[in-house]
Task: structure prediction
Amino acid sequence: MFQSRLQQLDNQSLTRRLHPLSSATGPTIQLAGRSVILLASNDYLGLATHPAVIQAAIQATERYGTGAGASRLVCGTLPPHAELEQALAAFKQTPSALVYGSGYLANLGVIPSLIARGGLIFADRLCHASLIDGARLSRADLRVYRHRDLNHLESLLKRTNQKRPTLIVTDGLFSMDGDLAPLPDLATLAERFSATLYVDDAHGTGVMGPSGRGTLEHFGVEDRIPFHMGTLGKALGSSGAYLAGPADMIQYLVNTSRPFMFTTAPPPASAAAACAALTVLQQDPTRRARLWRNRDHLFTGLTRLGFRLTDSTSPILPILIGQAEKALAFAEQLLAHGVYAPAIRPPTVPDGSSRIRVTITAEHSPEQIDFALSTFERAGQSAGLL
Result:
């Protein structure tokens, strides 16, 4: 049974396989015995290998062990968890915060605590899978609006009973397209139709906004959206996620959010590492400056070469290919020439929109970017894209 299903996926160029690395994630990696430039990581600020972040994880492990041993509500709440939640609340300028084991768990846990059967959820068509799964788990009615299409969302909202509990969910920074949700206008629609706006800022945290607080800070709407979700495993170089907001909401989630209540607490090392990364983020703004400088360097080069990019305004620079087979062939050419940037295919992206999702970090050197651009040019010519 499984073999036939795998064959069907293979016939559509949709099979996947793991690519084990033999090095830490960085601007270059060891893959299959070779050193190649990595342009696929979400470690935007290079904090996963920062000495202070590593040292914090080591010290927490030596003091508290490798695992928390239980859920947070039993005996799994350790000092690194409390310190991280205090640091997140201060960073996000909210009264309180709650840490989850992953962004997926956070969305599965928060959304059903905000709305239930009888309610109504409107989701952007390109929302992350965890937002859609969280919406389905809530048992509220789910409606999908066209990507960033405010007119479509407004028309759907007008046809609803405003007495029904209503939730609008969206990514802040869309992970596969690199574009931003129109948060000010979404907040206005939410206020106008008495809805609640829930923003997954996984890829915006640490990257967007003058202080790196995310897309809400970028658009100046932090005061209009009372709670903020983000992750710790991307720009903050660790693992896990958070929900920052009012103290009574956080306490409510502690008592109702099943993925928080019934999951072993995150390892103390990851909590301590994320806390250290927050400190580095706030004390060293040059990392974010390098990230954006590198982003502009790569974006300008890819555009000049003639690649078709999405409307990205972030360090995520997807090159649109179309067919999954062509995207795979292009990725193979890139790897053959020394750059690892795998093909992204359905169901991660819609049919007919397979792509190479290129990401840049603060740690890439100008020379590495220039080498990558020359590789993209050669691979693009070999694959018939240029």
Observations:
- The chain has two domains: 11-40+285-382, 51-283.
- The domain at 51-283 is CATH 3.40.640.10 (Aspartate Aminotransferase; domain 2).
- The longest helix spans residues 286-305.
